[in-house]
Every structure is written in structure tokens, then in C-alpha cells.
């Protein structure tokens, strides 16, 4: 008699476990978030930034949207010079290596009026 009760109890436990697992899978499918569509990035307003190079050597600089840093348009900036950059807010200004990879970058946040390259041409600072 005890064996019948034990078998019945185990069968009920397995059936309820299977029903719970199916319910859990259905719940996970129902609560999955739909894929979000690509939202176009809003560009900031145009700003003029003074780029000061305090290094004595010429430096390769990229200035533009962060998305274009993989195919950069590099501009050489002469040593001990001051140049104007016409970019948009939230664009990046980067010192580039000879292999066209960024060495140091600064973001043109709203309110920044100048970016300075240090004397060893290794970092940028925005002011």
C-alpha cells in the first residue's frame, strides 16, 4: 500500500514539475522585449573650437563624429600652433598614431571653446 502511495505522489510531482516548466517557457516568450528600431542620432549644433598644439612637433589629428574614427580624415597640425576646428557638439578630437589609431581623444562637449595638445603630444584637454 505504501508503495502505491509513493508512486502516486512521485507521478504527481513529476507532472506538476513538467507543467511548471512549460508555463515558465511560455512566460519567458511572452515577456521578451521586441527589438528596438535604429534611432537616428541627432547631431549637435556647429561650434568653433580653437586647437592649441603646445608640442614642438607636428601632430596628426582627427576631428569629427565618433562613428567615422575607423576611416579617419586626418589633418596635420603644426608644432606650437593654434588652429580653428569647425565641428559639431559631441564630436571627438583625437591625436592619431601613424597606424591611424587614436592615441588620445577629447569630446567637444557643449561649452568647450578650446582643446589643447600637451607638450609631449600624448594627451588632449578641453577647456
Written overview of the protein:
This protein is α+β, with helices and mostly antiparallel strands and 127 residues long. The protein folds into 2 domains: 1-32; 46-126, Immunoglobulin-like (Sandwich). Helices cover 23% and strands 35% of the residues. The protein is built from 1 helix and 8 strands, in the order αββββββββ. The chain has one helix spanning 2-30; strands at 46-53, 59-64, 74-77, 81-88, 92-96, 102-107, 114-117, 124-126. Strands 4-1-7-8 form a 4-stranded mixed β-sheet, with no helix packed on it. A 4-stranded antiparallel β-sheet has the order 3-2-5-6, with no helix packed on it. A hairpin with a 5-residue loop joins strand 5 and strand 6. It is elongated.
Got a strand count? 8
Q: Which sequence of strands runs across the widest sheet? A: 4-1-7-8
Question: Any guess at the CATH architecture of the largest domain?
Answer: Sandwich
> Which residues form runs of ≥5 with pLDDT under 50?
none
Overall 3D shape: elongated
Radius of gyration: 30 Å
Give the H and E element order. HEEEEEEEE
**Mean of the pLDDT scores?**
83
Q: Major beta sheet, specifics?
A: 4 strands, mixed
- What's the helix count? 1
CATH homologous superfamily descriptor of the largest domain: Domain of unknown function DUF5300
Please identify the structural class as seen in this structure: alpha+beta
Q: What gap, in angstroms, lies between the N and C termini?
A: 86 Å
Find the CATH topology of the largest domain. Immunoglobulin-like
What top-tier CATH class of the largest domain fits best?
A: Mainly Beta
| Proportion in helices | 10-25%
Number of domains: 2
Q: Which percent band covers the strand fraction?
A: 25-35%
Amino acid at each position: 500500500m505504501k508503495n502505491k502511495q509513493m508512486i502516486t505522489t512521485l507521478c504527481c510531482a513529476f507532472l506538476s514539475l513538467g507543467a511548471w516548466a512549460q508555463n515558465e517557457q511560455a512566460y519567458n516568450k511572452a515577456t521578451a522585449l521586441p527589438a528596438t528600431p535604429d534611432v537616428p542620432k541627432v547631431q549637435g549644433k556647429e561650434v568653433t573650437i580653437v586647437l592649441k598644439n603646445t608640442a614642438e612637433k607636428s601632430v596628426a589629428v582627427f576631428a569629427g563624429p565618433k562613428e567615422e574614427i575607423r576611416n579617419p580624415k586626418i589633418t596635420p597640425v603644426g608644432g606650437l600652433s593654434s588652429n580653428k576646428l569647425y565641428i559639431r557638439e559631441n564630436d571627438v578630437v583625437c591625436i592619431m598614431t601613424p597606424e591611424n589609431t587614436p592615441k588620445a581623444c577629447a569630446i567637444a562637449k557643449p561649452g568647450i571653446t578650446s582643446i589643447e595638445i600637451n607638450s609631449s603630444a600624448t594627451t588632449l584637454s578641453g577647456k
